[in-house]
């Protein structure tokens, strides 16, 4: 009798263990990504809807104030450039004012859109349209007269030997090239570039060339 009882108890315990190993959650057999995929789609759609906002009007503001206003509206991807085409960096934003913006004010854009602000120094007049620095010179010498001395240098091949000097009779040293404009150049515009040295004379912006 003891042997039969022990056998019966063993079979009962085995049955309990097997029952514990079986599936107990009815949701475990459903497709793994069905609910998650639907939730992800809904979240993405909601994010897109929330992110679409009107770009604020920034032209006419100081550059620092414009950046603050853009960020307050939810736009954080901000860049700026020199509207005068002189290739200057906007190091102290409070010294610059906004002349142009892309995208335009009022455009409905995702808050991740890049907003580019064209600016000039506070004492300068905004150009009617943004001025671009000279393009890469290529195989012929461009016309750099009136352009920033720094942008002329940047346009030429990096290996070019360049000499620049004050076109006035004051004999000043040219320290910050972005403050100077080209008066004369050698070679002349249109001459083929074949590695020859380049010479510029220049005066400060706001001064007439002699």
pLDDT < 50 runs, ≥5 residues: 1-35
Spatial sequence of strands, sheet with the most strands: 2-5-3
Describe the biggest sheet? 3 strands, mixed
CATH architecture of one domain: 2-Layer Sandwich
Give the percentage of residues in beta strands.
15-25%
Instruction: Assign the CATH topology of one domain.
Output: Trypsin Inhibitor V, Chain A
Rg computed from alpha carbons, rounded to a whole number of angstroms: 35 Å
Return the string of H and E elements: HHEHEEEEHEEE
Structure class: alpha/beta
Characterize the overall form: elongated
Number of strands: 8
Total count of helical runs of at least 4 residues: 4
What does this structure look like?
The chain is an alpha/beta fold and 210 residues long. Among the domains are: 71 residues, Trypsin Inhibitor V, Chain A; 56 residues, no CATH class. The chain is built from 4 helices and 8 strands; from the N terminus they run H-H-E-H-E-E-E-E-H-E-E-E. It has a 3-stranded mixed β-sheet, with helices on one face. Strands 6-8-7 form a 3-stranded mixed β-sheet, covered by helices on one side. The chain is elongated, with a radius of gyration of 35 Å.
Provide a brief overview of the structure:
By secondary structure, this protein is α/β, with parallel strands linked by helices.
Please write out the topology.
Layout: H1 2-21, H2 34-51, E1 52-54, H3 63-72, E2 78-82, E3 96-102, E4 108-110, E5 115-121, H4 149-155, E6 162-166, E7 180-186, E8 198-204
Parallel strand pairs: 2-5, 6-8
Antiparallel strand pairs: 1-4, 3-5, 7-8
Relevant terms:
210 residues, alpha/beta, Trypsin Inhibitor V, Chain A, three-stranded mixed beta sheet, 4 helices, 8 strands, elongated, disordered N terminus
């Amino acid at each position: 009798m003891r042997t039969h009882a022990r056998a019966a108890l063993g079979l009962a315990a085995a049955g309990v263990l097997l029952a514990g190993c079986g599936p107990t959650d009815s949701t475990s057999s459903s497709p793994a990504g069905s609910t998650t995929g639907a939730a992800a789609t809904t979240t993405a759609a909601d994010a897109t809807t929330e992110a679409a906002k009107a770009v604020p009007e920034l032209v006419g503001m100081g550059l620092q104030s414009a950046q603050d206003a853009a960020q307050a509206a939810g736009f954080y991807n901000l860049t700026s450039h020199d509207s005068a085409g002189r290739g200057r960096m906007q190091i102290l934003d409070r010294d610059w004012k906004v002349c142009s913006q892309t995208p335009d004010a009022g455009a409905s854009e995702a808050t991740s859109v890049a907003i580019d602000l064209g600016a000039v120094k506070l004492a300068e007049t905004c150009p009617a349209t943004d001025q671009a620095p000279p393009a890469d010179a290529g195989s012929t010498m461009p016309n750099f007269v009136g352009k920033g001395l720094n942008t002329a240098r940047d346009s030429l091949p990096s290996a070019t030997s360049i000499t620049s000097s004050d076109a006035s009779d004051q004999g000043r040293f040219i320290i910050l090239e972005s403050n100077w404009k080209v008066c004369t150049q050698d070679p002349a515009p249109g001459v083929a570039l074949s590695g020859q040295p380049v010479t510029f004379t220049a005066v400060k912006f706001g001064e007439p060339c002699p």
